[in-house]
Amino acid sequence: MNGDNSSIDHMRGGDESEWVSEPLWRRYLWPLAGLAALLVFELTASIACSSFVLCIKFGIGDFFYARWLQKHDPVHSRRHACVLMQLALGAFKIVMTGTILSLIFLVVASTQRQNQNHFGQAAIITSITALIGFMISSWLSLQGAFVADKAKLKVWVDRSMGHKALVEFPPQDLGTINEVASLMDAMLLATTIFLIVAIVSIFLCLPMIPVPVVIFVLLFSGGYVCYVMNCLKHRILAKTLEECWPELCEHNAIASAILTPPID
Fold this sequence. Notes:
single chain; 12 helices
């Protein structure tokens, strides 16, 4: 019986406490992020910049998990795709939380008369920073999707991955929601906005182009991009962990064989 338990512990990467223990760096993440945000605010007097620096805390776990995958996943194409998707998820978390926090601070600051002159400038900085962050996240998602589609792989990205002290490969005991769909939808939204801005800018620079032509090009290009991205999303979206990491099937079979009592 002890031998069976030791085999299970070995498959989990060691002792159970090691499996669920919190990483040491996470204990000091909030104080470090707060100090960094305060330093940025003192140097730039920008609410937006300091808010995004503070919200790095929400995505840094995904960056560490991407590094963990880079070291442990033996399949090159899957490793490349999952790392890019995990980095995209981390960037997406930082951008979303940073934008929301910046808007809250801006609304509070706008109620103070002495800060009204800086409201417009801070709003512009927030918008530009959020746009850049969304574009980076979308680019990483697109690259990961292309890698997975080229290798005919299914990809699983989980928001809980960055909150676990994983010590073995393949990862287990994750959530039930694959965030690839959310990343692809965000990428689709960013691409659509970019197309709208680009086409409207062309129309303003070249006013001799008829309005119906501009509308047709906008609808056709937007519809085509939506169709391609939707097809790509369904081709790479893993419905289960085993679709992304087939090694889990063998791992679970071994664990089941060890835990099943012998029949007399």
